[in-house]
Specification:
EC 1.1.1.85 (chains A, B); two-stranded antiparallel sheet; 12 strands; 10-stranded mixed beta sheet; binds 3-isopropylmalic acid; 11 helices; 346 residues; 2 domains; ICDH/IPMDH (chains A, B); Isopropylmalate Dehydrogenase; globular; leucine biosynthesis (chains A, B); branched-chain amino acid biosynthesis (chains A, B); cytoplasm (chains A, B); homodimer; alpha/beta
């Protein structure tokens, strides 16, 4: 008999609320014969204030035992900027070698977009997750003086770039349009840009059916608002991916519906699935948060574990629910979760 | 009697065409008593192919003699990516210490935007121009092998950050809304982020009338499409500024109308004014390019040299022309230049 042993990290703010709905839908969609075990972890601001810990080695050992991780959101104004981001989220992505940060963008019927004319949007960004300017390399000298110098070092390796580029080609190959766009800034960041572009062009030889192109990250933001239909799969660096996926989420329905996966494709470590949005402390505890992004992250999780039919059922339920929601009064967090749970079970 | 001694760099592709119109409007707007002298320079792809030179020390000495520089666009597919960008454009910005890269965004009446509902957009980005990931620091080892490592180093100094932050506070103070937003990624790039945030907060003490806020660069791209009216003045790092100003241009009428100034506020070196767009080789020589961005860059140039009334006349002429253009068949490059020249003279 099959089973899923899931680590659940609700985290801070609305993380608690949306994860509850994600689990509700997960339970509803799974066939009877699949045993779902969950273990909840208390990472986030509260634990940090109580113990000073963000993520210990023992925590990592424990998390490692799971098949996958579902994360709500981590972050609170009471914790200095960077502490939980670097000490928990990035630490986990790096420790579990989540080098494929997967962020699909699809504008569903009936969903509001800030763009005029309801353009067609259906692409996926493959963001590198373990290199670039996110490595924490760099430092500060003469801190706090008028002679302070602070550096940030973007580290890019052939090993790290090739594996994520290869993953992106595989995904492009599997999609009907078979198109892959490299986004970088190779005219200015010439060292990293040369590495990315070279490897991209080399791997492209092995995928003759995939159409490729290259655009600078600045130009990419223009296309994302003027011609998002030009994109099918995008592969890009950690920081550029961070920036363009927030923009991509904004144009394709907002961060209320943007899902993501932090994936370790080899399966050596559990992958982690989370909504793109943050902990939104301003609306926490009010039942106002939209759990859709978390539910869609559960779909990514299921697909990663091989439950494709169940993932499809969630995607279809969300599409139907969003169409029904259009023009209706806003529903509560649990109201949306309930509706989705009914749909996926039905 | 007054005079302007201008260096003119038409450059590549449509650069030639749009600069001609910029000069036409400049001549038309200047009072009789101002003597305009121009000297044309041949930088760009043609000279690079002929001589291998992009910008020599002798060129810099010669350019240094001018009051200001008007640039069209540099870049051609026949030159490898990065050669002209690093060898000409960035070299000039660094050599002349253009640390204030000024990029206003204003959605004028009648101008098409990809955003629904014609939002109010009127802000200016003060992009740092001489530091950050643009310094060319970094390198490559084991190039071309499977063990290649490429690094890019973002260099940030208290000196460099403070002067641009101060400039931005001055600009915010001089505007009706008096609001300044720092855009960075201080939760991940903690070394540089700490320096930027600290200096920003320190300088803020001296400007009690200016309202300040901070947002991460990824979130900034969301606001630029969902709520651009929230911005008045933005100050940011070189790379973040590059990215968000292309997006800002896209939402406020496109790069056809986006102007910029590479400013050395001390006047030690001449400042350079250029449209945000590139050389667009695909439409070069066809009279299709919109010279408006160059004409608006001429207005920035005039304001920098103290010709405020003339700059205002150009801005008003452009606004009137854009309103008139709405819904009309596209005019040629020189047709638009002629119309603007008539308006500013009248
Ligand atoms: C919270 C932050 C560290 C994170 C990132 O920059 O990756 C977030 O913006 C994201 O995109 O998941
Ligand atoms: C051409 C390129 C080097 C340049 C930059 O990145 O600064 C351009 O994108 C700009 O914004 O002026």
């Amino acid at each position: 008999s099959r089973s899923i042993n899931l680590a659940v990290i609700p985290g801070d703010g609305i993380g608690q609320e949306v994860v509850a709905e994600g689990l509700k839908v997960l339970s509803a969609v799974l066939p009877q014969d699949v045993k779902l075990e969950t273990k909840e972890y208390d990472f986030g601001a509260k634990r940090y204030h109580a113990t000073g810990e963000t993520l210990t080695d023992a925590d990592l050992d424990s998390l490692k035992q799971h098949d996958a991780i579902l994360l709500g959101a981590i972050g609170d104004p009471s914790v200095p900027s960077g502490v939980l981001e670097r000490g928990f989220l990035l630490k986990l992505r790096f420790a579990f070698d989540h080098h494929v940060n997967l962020r699909p963008s699809k504008l569903l019927p009936g969903v509001a977009t800030p763009l005029a004319g309801q353009p067609e949007i259906d692409f996926v960004v493959v963001r590198e997750g373990t290199e670039g300017p996110y490595t924490g390399n760099g430092g500060t000298i003469r801190k706090g003086t008028e002679h302070e110098v602070a550096t940030e070092v973007s580290v890019n390796t052939a090993y790290g770039v090739e594996r994520v580029v290869r993953d992106a080609f595989e995904r492009a190959q599997a999609r009907p349009r078979k198109k892959l766009t490299l986004v970088h800034k190779n005219n200015v960041l010439t060292f990293a840009g040369h590495l990315w572009t070279n490897i991209f062009n080399q791997v492209a030889q092995e995928y003759p059916e995939v159409t490729t192109d290259y655009i600078h990250v600045d130009a990419a933001t223009i296309y994302l608002v003027t011609d998002p239909a030009r994109f099918d799969v995008i592969v890009t660096d950690n920081l550029f991916g961070d920036i363009i996926t927030d923009l991509a989420a904004a144009v394709s329905g907002g961060i209320g519906v943007a899902a993501s996966g932090n994936i370790n494709p080899s399966g050596e470590f559990p992958s982690m699935f989370e909504p793109v949005h943050g902990s939104a402390p301003d609306i926490a505890g009010q039942g106002k948060a939209d759990p859709t992004a978390t539910v869609l992250s559960v779909a990514l999780l299921l697909r990663h574990l091989g439950y494709d039919a169940e993932a499809d059922r969630i995607d279809a339920a969300v599409a139907a629910d969003l169409t029904e929601r259009a023009g209706q009064p806003a529903r509560s967090t649990s109201g949306i979760g309930d509706a989705l749970a009914v749909r996926v079970a039905g």
